[in-house]
Amino acid sequence: MSAFPGKCFYCGKELKGRGVKRHFRTHLRDLKEGEDAFLILAKSHPFWMVIAVRKDLLLEDLDQFLRDVWVECCDHLSMFEIEGEPYPRYESSIYGDRSMKVRLSEVLRPDLTFRYEYDFGTTTEIDLYVFGEVKAPLRRDGISIIGQNDLPALLCDMCGKRPAKYINEYNGRLICDECYNERMKYEVLPLVNSPRAGVCGYEGSRVDPGEYRVRV
Length: 216
Ligand SMILES: [Zn+2]
Ligand SMILES: [Zn+2]
Ligand SMILES: [Zn+2]
What we know:
- This protein has helices at about 20-25, 60-70, 105; strands at about 5-10, 15, 35-45, 45-55, 80, 85-90, 115-120, 125-135, 145-150, 165-170, 175, 190.
- It is mainly β.
- The protein folds into two domains: about 5-150, MM3350-like (Structural Genomics Hypothetical 15.5 Kd Protein In mrcA-pckA Intergenic Region, Chain A, Roll), CATH 3.10.290.30; about 150-205, no CATH class.
- β1 and β2 form a beta hairpin.
- It is globular, with a radius of gyration of 18 Å.
- It starts with 5 loop residues before the first strand and ends in a 26-residue tail after the last strand.
């Protein structure tokens, strides 16, 4: 499966799954009004999101954003890994004295790839890529969502006909409204636009992603 199709909120273009990176790279030179920010691609296949994040925010702020919009189910641990170094949410002797209380401008740079993990049990992994430095109009908390995948209509695995509404937490099977029955109540979760869909009771964003969407 290629990446899900989506949309660029900056120019309005609908994007197919391929060419997402290429598209947003072209906006590096267009984004020159607003606050100093990094333009970052976050992906957890087949989900993706492109965000502009103020450079003086902390890794902790980026962690909170990813949690609120994409992955938070029940306050699990999380960690960034940047150039081979771990930056856990809470300081721990296992990881030396590093934590997420470090400014993005100190650890990120253009063309850098880094990683994020949420929940060290049933882990959701997110790969991040810094396109470069831009000036961007930032919405909530110094962050804007510049583009994001849509959740395409996925067919129910039981009938193969209707669009799925739920995902089984134990086997990943997709289920539509018609095929759903009461016996499944404790096994299924809503199929939502998040790499955490179907995992550990995840039911969707805590914060409306629309509040972060760039306005130009
Ligand atoms: Zn665009
Ligand atoms: Zn959980
Ligand atoms: Zn069905």
